[in-house]
Every structure is written in C-alpha cells, then in structure tokens.
Amino acid sequence: MSEPHTSPPPGTQAPSGSGPLRLQAEVLESERVAANHRRLLLRAPQIVTTAQPGQFLHIWCHPPEEIDRPPSAALLRRPYSISRLRPPDGVEILLRVRGNGGRLLAAKAAGESLDIIGPLGHGFRISPGLSLAVIVAGGIGLAPVSFLVERLGGLGVRVILLAGAETDEKIPFRVERPQAGGATLPEMEALGAEVTFVSESVEGVRITEVVQARLDELPGEGAAMFAVGPRAMLKRLAEIARGGLPLQVSLEERMACGLGACRSCVVPARSADGASYKTVCRDGPVFDASEIDWERLTP
Ligand SMILES: Cc1cc2nc3c(=O)[nH]c(=O)nc-3n(C[C@H](O)[C@H](O)[C@H](O)COP(=O)(O)OP(=O)(O)OC[C@H]3O[C@@H](n4cnc5c(N)ncnc54)[C@H](O)[C@@H]3O)c2cc1C
Ligand code: FES
Fold first, then answer.
1. How many domains, in total, are found in the chain?
2. What separation in Å is there between the alpha carbon of 56 and the centre of ligand 1?
3. What does pTM read for this prediction?
4. Could you tell me if 48 and 89 are in contact, meaning their C-beta atoms sit under 8 angstroms apart?
5. Which ligand is nearest to the CA of 253?
6. Shared domain check, 286 and 193
7. Which residue, 65, 89, 120, sits at the end of a domain?
8. Rounded distance from Cα 295 to ligand 2 centre (Å)
9. Are 179 and 285 members of one domain?
C-alpha cells in the first residue's frame, strides 16, 4: 500500500502527528450485502492499529488521482463509520447507497484505491466498570455496531443488541425469524451479542418501544446504553433513559472538512446560555446524551 499523502485535500487541513492520517487504501473486497447496501473491505493497516468503535473515515469518492480536479458531483468527502476491523490490515465499511457519493463508492472494484482520512472523531467511551452494554441501533445505524460488539465482548462485557428498521431491507445484515415473534441477526449473534430485531413492517413495533419494555428488567449498576440511528430514535431514547442508564449517542450531520475547521456539522449543545454548539466530526460523532440540547436539535 502507498504511504500516507502529505498534501492536504482541497478545503481541508492536513492531519498531523499521531492523530488521523490521510492515506490511499486499496479496495480488497466489495460486495452487495442487502438491497441498496454494500460492504467494502479496505487495506489500511495504520487505521487498524488506532481505530476505536464509533470513529469514522472521511472518503473521497472519486479516483485519488482526480483529487485536484473539481468533480461535477460529490465534490466533498463523505463520512462513513468504521464498521469492523479485520486485522492485520483490513477495515470494513458498510454503506447505504443514497446519492452520488454512495453510488461512486459502491461501484469501486477490488484493486482500486480510495483516498481516505481517518480514524476521525471521538468514538464510544467504555468505562472500566461496565458489565452490561445495551446497544440500540436503527437502520443503517447498525453499520458501526459489529466493531463495538467485538470490542465489548473482548472486554468481557455482556452485550444486548436491540435493533430495528422500517423493513428488513433497510439494514445491511441478514434477518432470520427462527420462530414466530422473534427475529434475529445471525452475524451479530456470532459476535456474541444477545439480539432482538424488529421490523416495523413485520413485527409492527418500533425499537424504542422494545427498549422501553425491556428497561425495567435490566440491572442499573454496571450497565450503559449506546445508540446509533435516526435522530427521532435517539431523541426518544434520550427521554426514555433520562435519570436511568447512562446513554451515549452517535450523531450524523452533513460534513465538509471532517476535521473541526469549517463548523458545517455543528449540533446544539446544552449550556447555561443556550447558545453553545459542538462539531459532530471532532467533538463527536459520539456524545453523552446529556451534552446535546435535544429541544434545539433539528429532526
Ligand atoms: C459520522 C458519520 C458516519 C456515517 N456512517 C455511515 C455508514 O457507516 N454507512 C452509511 O451508509 N452512511 C453513513 N453515514 C451517512 C453518509 O455519510 C451519507 O449517507 C453520505 O454522505 C451520503 O452521500 P451521497 O453522496 O451518497 O448522498 P447525497 O447526495 O449527499 O445525499 C443523498 C440523500 O441522503 C441524505 N443524507 C446525506 N448525508 C446524510 C447524513 N449524514 N445523515 C442523514 N441523511 C443524509 C441527503 O439529505 C439526501 O437526501 C455517516 C454519516 C456520518 C456523519
Ligand atoms: S465538517 Fe468541518 S467542522 Fe465538522
């Protein structure tokens, strides 16, 4: 693999020191994993050694050699969560094809290269006393969950995964219904998680309703909740968890630099004067739910 570049991409500053790197990562595998979803395995050994669950890559969707030519579409890099590490040198992302950037990435074949910056942002914080992690994920929010489940499992933490989507096709994993009323995600079970999956179109409930129903049976001590998914889901969880389990949420926002410089990705934060903001790319994407001003956060 080529060495990290030193020149900054247009509109960004060059990452330096032991933080994020800019590098060219070879696509090792690319496969369709569900309707409209794709898994890319990239060769990026430098990222394998430093990445934390919840961090992301900022990806230039065009060929690396076209970085100085203004493209007609997907002018900016696109952020994608690190979905899983495949040591010694593989990094996986799971993408839902939404627009031009996603389409360009989905069309990449093994052997091509991507210009990436990462690992970026602050990931999930795992406190030393944690014994039970309740991960709540909605839709494409499942993308970073494998990495988190593996990390928690490696630390001996019991993991309950409560996942949901509008339909089975809205997640990048295979759904199984071994018996009536109970759906699961075999790939997540294989990683050691106790899984409940609900699809609004089949089970007819939202994942936040499942969380609310299960909360009372969970031990309070040594437990914490980690959530990734649509804002409406995160907002509801912040209400449900208030005063109970500590909750960390991973937020998404449209990004430009990805490095904390342009402030295009700010979200309202709680403060005494009500006027404070935090950047999703640098302060987040993972925040304590108590840091966010949910009233002022746009849907
Ligand atoms: C920290 C972070 C991690 C992310 N991780 C993943 C991931 O692992 N897998 C994945 O598939 N996507 C992820 N996303 C979202 C992903 O970055 C966007 O889907 C992508 O940038 C869309 O680019 P595009 O050119 O394909 O679509 P565009 O043409 O830019 O947009 C297509 C449609 O998607 C909507 N959209 C674009 N970006 C977002 C966003 N950030 N949040 C909500 N709606 C959006 C647009 O409003 C538009 O309707 C993440 C975003 C952030 C901020
Ligand atoms: S994208 Fe520039 S500050 Fe976050």
1. 2
2. 12
3. 0.92
4. yes
5. 1
6. yes
7. 120
8. 22
9. yes
- Ligand 1: residues with CB < 6 A are 56, 74, 78-81, 93-96, 98-102, 140, 143, 252-255, 280, 285
Q: Could you give phi then psi for residue 211, rounded to 5 degrees?
A: -60, -45
Can you tell me whether residue 200 is helix, strand or coil? coil
Looking at the structure, do residues 97 and 236 belong to the same domain, yes or no?
no
Cα 12 to middle of ligand 2, angstroms = 9
Which range marks the domain in which residue 238 is found? 132-291
Please name the residue that has the structure tokens 């952020």: 79
Give the tens place of pLDDT for each residue, 123-179.
Answer: 999 999 999 999 999 999 999 999 999 999 999 999 999 999 999 999 999 999 987
| Cα separation of the two ends of the chain | 41
Query: Which atom of ligand 2 lies closest to the CA of 281?
Result: 4
66 & 199 share domain:
no
Tens of pLDDT, residues 246-270: 999 999 999 999 999 999 999 999 9
